[in-house]
Amino acid sequence: MVQPMSCTRLFADEDGESHFEDMEVPMNEVLYALPAPAVHLSEAQSASRVSWFRFPADWTDAAHPTPRRQLFVVLSGEVEGWTSLGDKRIFRSGDCLLMEDTVGKGHGARPLNGEATAIVIALE
Predict the structure, then answer these.
(1) What is the DSSP letter of 58?
(2) Is 21 helix (H, G, I), strand (E, B) or coil?
(3) In degrees to the nearest 10, what's the CA dihedral of 54, 103, 63, 79?
């Protein structure tokens, strides 16, 4: 059995409050690029665009919903995120956040200890 990958999900409940939730992404052993050996791969998801993202060192935000359903993957630095209820998490290089709080009170974020970079993948 292939171990799943971990990811954090950010979503809004029926009252518009945002929440973090730990989730696992199922993985399968796949011969992806022959003649290379098998790798672990998830089911594909449709995406419409990819953007490079940089938080300037002094950037901060109160709260906003995400503009679209997207996957946020930290490349460098650290990003602190918080929900409308005040729950906080720190995301570091390699961490991913599935952002689905497109309605409601939203979330806030700021880089820690200087700038941070990420890739944002808009999901369909």
Answers:
(1) T
(2) strand
(3) -40
* Closest among 64, 70, 56 to 83, alpha carbons compared: 64
pLDDT at 1: 78
Give the pairing of strands 70-82 and 96-99.
antiparallel
* Among 69, 67, 112, 70, residue whose Cα is nearest residue 88: 112
Cβ–Cβ under 8 Å, residues 19 and 13: yes
Rounded distance, CA 93 to CA 114, Å? Answer: 14
Q: Options 2.10.109.10, 3.40.50.1820, 2.60.40.10, 2.60.120.10; which CATH number does 5-123 get?
A: 2.60.120.10
Return the structure tokens found at 59: 């950037």
**What's the farthest any 2 CA atoms get from each other in the chain?**
51
Q: How many residues does the chain have?
A: 124
Give per-10-residue mean pLDDT for the chain (124 aa).
Answer: 95 98 97 97 97 96 94 98 97 98 97 98 96
Radius of gyration of the chain (CA): 16
